[in-house]
Design goal:
Strand content: 5-15%
Order of helices and strands: HEHHEHEHEHEHEEEHHEHHEH
CATH superfamily: Glycoside hydrolase/deacetylase
Number of strands: 10
Radius of gyration: 19 Å
Number of helices: 12
Largest sheet: 5 strands, parallel
CATH architecture: Alpha-Beta Barrel
CATH topology: TIM Barrel
Bound molecules: zinc ion
């Protein structure tokens, strides 16, 4: 993928100011997304991730005074209970960003007009709910393509944060999809383009390929997620394994770039509100809720001791500042 090129030339001051930043981001994936990944029948009734899990996340951020970034799947805003919580998040100073309208894992493969329609719907839903246009985007399943990046730029987003530079994650996901493909209900997830998961330095301003050898710098910035030594620093690793999570946090803090701890509501939802069949296939849900919160709290305290938490929009603003790139 052409855009995975660091074109940055950083001034010392800017580097220092960015190195002091951390973001807490949460992708609002609902129960149905996990059930479709694991080839399980859809579930009826309330979504515990987007109600109890989201409440817990907002309370957690309030305790620490952290302004987070929420990537919202906007079709869920049709549910008043979920819309209410997203409104609460906006009122409490969190950034509301876009995670597509319907969270289709193959969105990166759609044609430009389909992607454009999807983004327009999603932007309108967020603007209608919180009165502000989103400026950040994260693709479903971290699957980015040049076509999707073109559409994100055209739709007026100022940053994209879809890249998870972790070949290990890509490999593990591919294995799960392959294993599911022989069952009755294959996974709805997509293997994705391995180039999008290659380690890279970021943040950077992606380039757009034009005719011939030339390329043009895009009018948005890319803020990749954090993956020290190619391992994802996300809820699954931080709350799923104390030892691995603690070491990844130590390595993340050594970075000279802004860092991003990416969570999902599943990480902060009590396991007894989740159906047994999903609990059985999710190792992270086998760690008791109280223990998951303890690990997360310990991680966030450690990060807060070394860096300042800001929403991604603040990182994008600084990266996009004159002289930054
Ligand atoms: Zn997602």
């Amino acid at each position: 993928m052409e855009s995975v090129v660091n074109v940055g030339r950083w001034t010392t001051n800017l580097m220092n100011s960015l190195a002091g930043l951390a973001s807490l981001t949460i992708d609002l994936d609902g129960v149905r997304h996990y059930r479709s990944i694991h080839g399980l029948e859809p579930q009826k009734g309330d979504d515990p991730f987007l109600t109890q899990g989201l409440d817990c996340f907002l309370d957690f951020c309030a305790d620490f005074g952290i302004p987070a970034t929420l990537f919202v799947v906007t079709e869920d805003l049709q549910n008043e209970a979920i819309a209410q919580r997203v409104r609460r998040a906006a009122n409490e100073g969190h950034e509301i960003a876009c995670h597509s309208h319907c969270h289709d894992y193959s969105m990166s493969r759609w044609n430009p007009s389909q992607i454009g329609d999807e983004l327009a719907r999603s932007i309108a839903a967020i603007e209608g709910l919180v009165g502000q246009r989103p400026i950040g985007f994260r693709a479903p399943g971290y699957n980015l393509s040049e076509t999707l990046l073109d559409a994100i730029e055209t739709a007026g987003f100022r940053y994209d944060s879809s890249l998870l530079p972790s070949p290990a994650y890509w490999g593990a996901r591919g294995l799960v999809i392959a294993l599911k493909s022989v069952g009755d209900r294959p996974s709805a997830s997509l293997v994705g383009n391995p180039k999008a998961f290659l380690p890279q330095r970021g943040p950077f301003r992606p380039k757009r390929k034009t005719k011939g050898w030339r390329s043009k710098t895009r009018n948005l910035v890319e803020l990749p997620m954090t993956a020290p030594m190619g391992l994802p620093w996300i809820g699954t690793t931080v709350v799923g394994s104390e030892h691995l999570g603690w070491n990844l946090t130590r390595l993340a803090l050594r970075s000279h770039k802004p860092i991003d701890l990416e969570l999902h509501p599943i990480d902060v939802t009590p396991e007894d509100s989740v159906d047994a069949d999903l609990r059985r296939v999710r190792r992270d849900l086998q760690v008791p809720f109280v223990e998951r919160i303890r690990r997360l709290r310990r991680t966030v305290e450690r990060v807060a001791g070394a860096r300042r938490f800001v929403p991604l929009t603040e990182v994008a603003r600084r990266v996009g500042a004159p002289g930054a790139l």
